[in-house]
């Protein structure tokens, strides 16, 4: 798996990051007491 990261298309990386951020926002806000 290591060393294969460069073979993955940049758009797939970007989409994965967006999903992680989207699903991480709610628990982070709850931890910080924003809600």
TrEMBL record:
Highest taxon, organism lineage = Bacteria
| Record flagged with keyword Transmembrane | yes
Per UniProt, the keywords (alphabetical) are: Membrane, Transmembrane, Transmembrane helix
- What transmembrane ranges does the database entry give? 7-25
Q: What is this protein called?
A: Uncharacterized protein
**Which species expresses this protein natively?**
Streptomyces afghaniensis 772
């Amino acid at each position: 798996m290591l060393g294969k990261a460069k073979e993955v298309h940049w758009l797939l990386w970007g989409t994965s990051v967006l999903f992680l951020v989207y699903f991480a926002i709610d628990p982070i806000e709850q931890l910080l007491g924003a809600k």
